[in-house]
Structure formats: structure tokens, C-alpha cells
Amino acid sequence: MATDTGRETGTEAGVIERMNDATFRRIGVFGTSLVAVGVAAFLLYVLLVRVDYELFVEIIYPQFTLAFLRVLGIVLVSSVLSVIAGIVVGLARVSLTGVTRNIAKGYIEFFRGTPLLFQLFAIYIGIPQLWNGAFPIDQWNYYAAVIGLTLNHAAYVGEATRGGIESIPSGQMEAARSLGMSYIQSMQNVVLPQAWRNSLAAIGNDQVILVKDTSLLTVLAVPELMTAFRNINSATFDAWTPLILVAIAYLMLTIPLGRVVSYLERRADPASAGGDG
């Protein structure tokens, strides 16, 4: 109250507070501008001095193009499967049955509590050793990559879905049940659509992380983008030219994905959808 009164009446305390606000804003603008100029200067130096543009054009195809397409395929399959599996896990987390709820909780705890690299090794190396004789699946590294990414990110999508469901007031479920809907119908037609909207941002962020996690697939001998970088760096001793291509390739995946998530969020929000016309 005293602060508001000071602002309104122009007392000495109010004047000092406004000066402090203005000072902090100027410091913030100066600090962020300094960082932006520093980053821009560094990028300009790398692009003008360190990048070999003849090599840049030479390695775009086939090395990086094929690696990009492999990553894109793995991301598309893993993303779809992880979202579907994650919704199932999220529904299991809010199940009325204790056994189902606890199994889903254990699944999430395990896959969130152990490193993705460990999970990839367990699938890629561990599972074939359980097999008596020769492992029958060719190119197991690709399957291991998709399975590992799917299982890991389904846990995060499951938690996001659980949070979205629990953010819906219980009265919504009660109102649906009072209209004669079953539990499943109420969940499907009333709760889940609203929960999806509430959890969409978290799920979208997780899918962006999934894209970046594909860089770990180099340990499974999947010829993805970081493998292409290492091969070219070993052959040419040029680090920055392939690194710039790796950055461009990942941004070509993550930026459109972020736009898609933002679009879905607007579509899911009735107020925003109305405003978009």
C-alpha cells in the first residue's frame, strides 16, 4: 500500500522507486545487448574465418543429407509411438485400480531415473545377449534406437498427461457421469481433450528433447548427424564446417516442431482459435 501510495503521490520514496526500476531496465537492456553482440561477433568470426565453404557444399550430400533423413525417420516413428504410449501411461497413472496405477508409476520412475544412454545400451547390447544363438534381427541398432527413445519419452509424456488430467476439476468428471456417461466415455469425451490442451506445451517440449536425444544414437552405430560430423572431422581435421551443418540440421527439425506445437496450442485454445479468425 505504501509503495502504491508513493507511486501515485510522487513522494520521494516513489521517485526513488521509479528511478530504481528505470536503472534495472537499463542494466537489463545493456546486459542482454552485450551478450547478443558477443554471440553475434563469435558466430560471424566462425562463419567468416573458420568455415570452409567448399567443404561445406561437398559434404552436404550424401553424408549429411542421408544422416538427416535417418534422424528424421527415427524422430517421426519414435515421436508418434512415444506420444501414443505416453497417453496410455498417463491414463494408467490416474487409474482407479491401484495395481495399474503403481505399475505405471514404477515405469515412469525407472525411465526417468536412469540415463537414456544406459537404456539404449541395455536394449542394443543387453537384449541380444539374452538370445540363444545368433540374434535374428538385422540392423538391430535402428530398432534399438526407436525402442529406446520411445520407452524413455513415453515416461515423460505420461507424466505430462497425468498432470493435464489432474488439472481438470473433478466436477467435470462428476458432471459427465451424472449425464449417464461411463468412466471411459467421460475420460474420452470430457477430461482427456481438456487435459491434452493443458499438457500440450510439456509434451511439445519433450518432443524437441527427443530430437536432440538422437545425437546419442551415435553410440549404437546409427549413422546419424553426430556420426557424420565425427567422420568428416576425422578425415579433414575441420571441426567448424561440419559442426555448422549439424546445428543447421537440428534447427531444421526443432524449429518447425516448435511451430507445430504452438499451432496446436492455439487450435486447442478456444479463445486463441477465435482470435485467429
UniProtKB/TrEMBL annotation:
The keyword Transport applies. SUPFAM superfamilies: MetI-like. It comes from the Archaea. One of its GO terms (cellular component) is ATP-binding cassette (ABC) transporter complex. InterPro entries: AA_ABC_transptr_permease_3TM, ArtM/GltK/GlnP/TcyL/YhdX-like, MetI-like, MetI-like_sf. Residues 68-261 form the ABC transmembrane type-1 domain. Keywords: Amino-acid transport, Cell membrane, Membrane, Transmembrane, Transmembrane helix, Transport. GO terms for molecular function: transmembrane transporter activity. GO terms for biological process: amino acid transport. The chain crosses the membrane at residues 27-48, 68-92, 113-131, 239-257. It is found in: Cell membrane. Its main location: membrane. It is a multi-pass membrane protein. Gene3D superfamilies: MetI-like. Belongs to the binding-protein-dependent transport system permease family. HisMQ subfamily. This is Amino acid ABC transporter permease. It comes from Halorarum salinum.
